[in-house]
Design goal:
Elements lengths: L3 H10 L6 H26 L12 H14 L13 H10 L4 H26 L1
Length: 125
């Protein structure tokens, strides 16, 4: 479900016994780890393209590649967004984005999202 991690983060931030830094670190690490799993799936995804059960048509894959080529690795800054973020990280794997650069950009995106959620939560409570 989209926004689930934000709800848990906001809830944990309201507990004064829990370290804000630790909550942000664990949330960011978990989310980046999930995105990295998507990248790995995308990296090996293309090897099955000619199989009948392959879920994406050649046209759809070509369009996704075209968008990625157009905006490049910096499109990964949008990986924080619900709905489009996960497919974007899979496409990065398909496009053979180097893992180190992928992790850095996705970490910036995910941490930024959680910092905004933390700021809003702490200002509200």
């Amino acid at each position: 479900m989209p926004m689930q991690s934000e709800a848990v983060l906001a809830y944990l931030l309201t507990d004064p016994k829990i370290s804000i830094g630790m909550v942000l670190t664990v949330a960011t690490f978990g989310n980046v780890l999930g995105s990295t799993v998507n990248w790995v799936c995308g990296r090996f995804f293309r090897g099955f393209q000619n199989r009948r059960w392959f879920p994406i048509s050649a046209d759809v894959l070509a369009r996704a590649e075209g968008h990625y080529h157009r905006y490049g690795r910096w499109s990964l800054l949008a990986s924080w967004m619900p709905v489009i973020g996960d497919p974007l990280t899979v496409v990065a794997g398909v496009m053979r984005e180097p893992l180190a650069g992928f992790v850095v950009i996705v970490t910036i995106a995910k941490l930024s999202r959680y910092l905004v959620v933390a700021g809003l939560t702490l200002a509200w409570f």
